[in-house]
Design goal:
- The chain is an alpha/beta fold.
- Helices cover about 20% and strands about 40% of the residues.
- It contains 3 helices and 8 strands.
- The strands form 2 sheets. A 4-stranded mixed beta sheet has the order 1-4-3-2, covered by helices on one side.
Length: about 130
C-alpha cells in the first residue's frame, strides 16, 4: 500500500507542477489535459486546457493534481519539506513565499533550526523544516 497526495487547483495545476519540477527537483511523470480526453470536442478551449490529471514525483513522494472549477486553496493540511540544511530551508522559503501568504515566518524554534508555514502562489500550503 502507498499513500499519495492529490491536490485540486483553480486552473493553475500545470504551472504549479512545472514550478515544483523546476525549483524543487521533482519530475512530472504525467500531465494530461481535458483536451487530450475522449470528450475534447464537446469542451470549450478553456476547458480543454484544464489539467485532467497530473503526477509529480518529489523526494520519494507522489503528488497528483487536477484543475477543478471553484476549488479553494488548501486548508488545515500542509505538504512538509524536511531539508538537510538551514540554507536549503531559507532558499525554499524565499521561493515558495514569493507571491504567496506566510502564516509563520522562517525562524528557529524549540524543535527546529528553521521552520516556516506558508501558502504558495498556487494555493498549496507548505511547512518547511530543518530539524534540530
Amino acid at each position: 500500500m502507498t499513500l499519495d497526495i492529490y491536490l485540486n487547483y483553480a486552473g493553475n495545476c500545470q504551472q504549479a507542477f512545472r514550478f515544483y519540477e523546476q525549483h524543487l527537483g521533482g519530475t512530472v511523470t504525467m500531465l494530461m489535459t481535458h483536451g487530450q480526453g475522449p470528450n475534447a470536442a464537446a469542451l470549450s478551449e478553456e476547458q480543454q486546457r484544464a489539467v485532467l490529471h497530473a503526477r509529480l514525483e518529489l523526494g520519494g513522494t507522489v503528488l497528483m493534481g487536477a484543475d477543478i472549477p471553484d476549488s479553494q486553496p488548501m486548508r488545515s493540511a500542509y505538504l512538509t519539506l524536511r531539508v538537510d540544511s538551514e540554507a536549503e530551508a531559507e532558499r525554499l522559503y524565499a521561493l515558495l513565499a514569493d507571491g504567496g501568504q506566510v502564516f509563520m515566518r522562517m525562524e528557529k524554534t524549540f524543535f527546529a533550526n528553521r521552520f516556516a508555514m506558508l501558502r504558495d502562489r498556487f494555493g498549496t500550503s507548505w511547512m518547511l523544516l530543518h530539524e534540530s
